[in-house]
Amino acid sequence: MKKSICLLMSIILCLLIPGCRTEEPLQTEMTYPDYTVEYTSPYSFGEEVYESSETTQTAQPAEGIDMDLTTMSSTMVYANVYSLISYPDDYLGQTIKMEGVSSSFHSETNGNYYFACVIQDAAACCSQGIEYELTEEFINPDDYPSDGDQICVVGVFDMYEEDGMYYVTLRDAQLLEE
Amino acid sequence: MLDTLIMYLQYPFVRYAVIVGVLIALCSSLLGVTLVLKRFSFIGDGLSHVAFGAMAVASVAGLTNKLLIVLPVTVISAVLLLRSGQNTRIKGDASVAMISVGALAFGYLIMNLFSTSSNLSGDVCSTLFGSTSILTLTLREVRICIVLSVIVVVIFVLFYNKIFAVTFDESFAKAAGVRTERYNLLIAVVIAVIIVLAMNLVGSLLISALVIFPALSAMRVQRSFKSVTICSAVLSVLCALIGIAVSILGGTPVGSTIVAVDVAVFIICYSLGKIRGGIGV
């Protein structure tokens, strides 16, 4: 019996170990446990709860927009945002439209204010978000939405480095009327 | 709606979810018939809680490949649980309940005390209910799932006759020269592998449904072990596909949607069985 257990365990471990060598998705300095997705840096969003705009109508992106998350179901939105954060290289330069809840973070280290559009999964237990930077006409932070405001934002997906860490953002973002 | 579904299928993560969902549904349904007939329906629940505890330890330890801890721990627990009826002081259902709640509590405690995540409730909820983890699989996870699923199916096909013998009359099989301990061990290991795989699809709290419902539905409309197994596999895969499609179209949680479809199919099969007269378990 013990021999059988040892043999089976060895086979299982042999099968699993090769999997350790394959490439992991790019971690843009954020940590993503395999079974929980969250956007942890540079923000700490806590556990905001909001009613996500539901339903799927047409999933066709509008003109000039490469990925329109506003036309997708909450499940697809969450999976897409996870993909954007995990594999940012695949989406650099794409124009993305999304709606969610605005959330801000003030860094005491450099004094900057960061703003993000936060979405939740269908089970309403996990949240993640993407940072956005409005066009130059908007003064940070005075002209930005307040925390908890429902927003719809369009911007060009980009990645930047700050203090040795990589972050994703929607550049030249515009706030749209929902 | 069909156009939207086809458009969604162009996303790699949706295709991964469909592949993994179908494989997990197939594997869980194959062994589900054996578990139900051997009166081990609740063992999936116990093992999934053990897997949750192991997952918590792996997360706290910061392992990239959590399966290195989760799979061995679940396999050992499965072996211990299936042997619990033999010469042990704590019998069957009591040991399942003990290990189940113990592992669940231990896992949550570990995550609370040592978790480095800022979203603990999200971590726990996602592990327990699957959340959208099936839509956030990496290519490596998909490959591991394919390999393990193929192993499960091959083992089931190769040892079909022995599993059949051990399932229906273990004492007779033993008297006929079948090494029942070995095949019980094999069943335990395969169940553990399925449980670990299924955590991604429906979460640890809903795994039992994936194992039990297709088997019970099939038993309402079919009579022989072979036809029940085939019917169970077909129903399980269909339910998984419908569940995934509904959840990505309607924005509902994937795991609970699949289980809801399983329940609906069971009600249909139960009604059909009442009319036609299926076997009862």
Tell me what the structure shows.
The complex is a heterodimer of chains A (178) and B (281). Chain A has one domain (26-175): OB fold (Dihydrolipoamide Acetyltransferase, E2P), CATH 2.40.50. In chain A, a hairpin with a 6-residue loop joins strand 3 and strand 4. Mean pLDDT of chain A is 70; it is low at 11-59. Chain A has a five-stranded mixed beta barrel with strand order 2-3-4-6-5. Chain A has helices at residues 2-16, 74-86, and strands spanning 67-68, 95-106, 113-120, 127-134, 150-162, 165-175. Chain A has two helices and six strands. By secondary structure, chain B is mainly α. The longest helix of chain B is centred in the N-terminal third of the chain and has 26 residues, at 12-37. The relative contact order of chain B is 0.17. The model of chain B has no long low-confidence stretch (mean pLDDT 83). The chains are: A alpha/beta (178), B mainly alpha (281).
Distance between the first and last residues' Cα of chain A: 65 Å
Radius of gyration of chain B: 19 Å
Task: State the domain count of chain B.
Answer: 1
Q: Distance between termini of chain B? A: 39 Å
Secondary-structure content class of chain A: alpha/beta
Top keywords for this entry?
heterodimer, A: alpha/beta, OB fold (Dihydrolipoamide Acetyltransferase, E2P), 2 helices, 16% helix, globular, B: 281 residues, ABC transporter involved in vitamin B12 uptake, BtuC, 13 helices
Write the layout of secondary structure elements.
The complex is a heterodimer of chains A (178) and B (281).
Chain A: H1 2-16, E1 67-68, H2 74-86, E2 95-106, E3 113-120, E4 127-134, E5 150-162, E6 165-175
Parallel strand pairs in A: 1-2, 4-6
Antiparallel strand pairs in A: 2-3, 2-5, 3-4, 5-6
Chain B: H1 2-8, H2 12-37, H3 43-61, H4 67-82, H5 92-114, H6 120-129, H7 139-158, H8 160-168, H9 170-175, H10 180-202, H11 207-221, H12 225-250, H13 254-276
